């Protein structure tokens, strides 16, 4: 009896194990089937279009550098003091440069006034040298003609130097008297030329770049006194003077009555 009971117990235990194994295998197969179905459903479902993700614009380095940083009141005060010192330094330098410019301009102006005629004097020196040579030659055995020719050469050189600096002589002889260019020193009665004509030049006048430098001292021609009186009588009485004829008739009547 005891053996039968143990045998039946072993059988029941093995049957239970087998049932548990079968049940576990069934559940595993069922779970695998469900997993395959879910995979198929996911594969068949349409993929949703990917939407672009908007990225926030990144600030450039220049904008980041130029963006003013917040400063504390103490830092701001120090910055203002530094800027004020820089401006004051620039102002001092500018004033120093301007003062140097004024001094330089004043010196240049003084030099122009003091040495402005240096070029003219250099051109006059050769003329003086020629005059000295001419005098030295004349004191020796030089002839009068040679001396005269030397004077003419010196005069030509002088006129050339004056023309170089814009000085021109005024042509007066034989010209009509012009009070803007000529100064009358004397009158000469003559009928050889028209009245108010320059007949002689005492001293030559000059123009400097078209401006009167010195007037010419001249003698001006006038009509002789006799001609002036005759012209004056003719202009006063006219060619046919009725007053003269009446006077002649009156004298003839008086003679007849006597």
Structure, described:
- The structure is a single chain.
- The protein has 258 residues and is an alpha+beta fold.
- Among the domains are: 117-165; 168-230, Head domain of nucleotide exchange factor GrpE (Nucleotide Exchange Factor Grpe, Chain A, domain 2, Roll), CATH 2.30.22.
- It contains seven helices and six strands; from the N terminus they run H-H-H-H-H-E-E-E-E-E-E-H-H.
- A hairpin with a 2-residue loop joins strand 4 (206-208) and strand 5 (211-214).
- Residues 1-5 and 238-258 have low confidence and may be disordered.
Give a short overview:
Helix content is 64%, strand content 12%.
CATH architecture annotation name of the domain at 168-230: Roll
Distance between the termini: 238 Å
CATH C-level class of the domain at 168-230: Mainly Beta
Q: How many helix segments?
A: 7
What share of the residues does DSSP label as strand, in percent?
5-15%
Annotate the secondary structure layout.
Layout: H1 2-44, H2 61-66, H3 73-115, H4 118-139, H5 144-164, E1 167-169, E2 182-189, E3 198-203, E4 206-208, E5 211-214, E6 216-222, H6 225-237, H7 242-257
Parallel strand pairs: 2-6
Antiparallel strand pairs: 1-4, 3-6, 4-5
Helix pairs in contact: 4-5
Provide keyphrases for this structure.
single chain, about 260 residues, alpha+beta, Nucleotide Exchange Factor Grpe, Chain A, domain 2, three-stranded antiparallel sheet, three-stranded mixed sheet, 6 strands, about 65% helix, rod-shaped, disordered N terminus, disordered C terminus
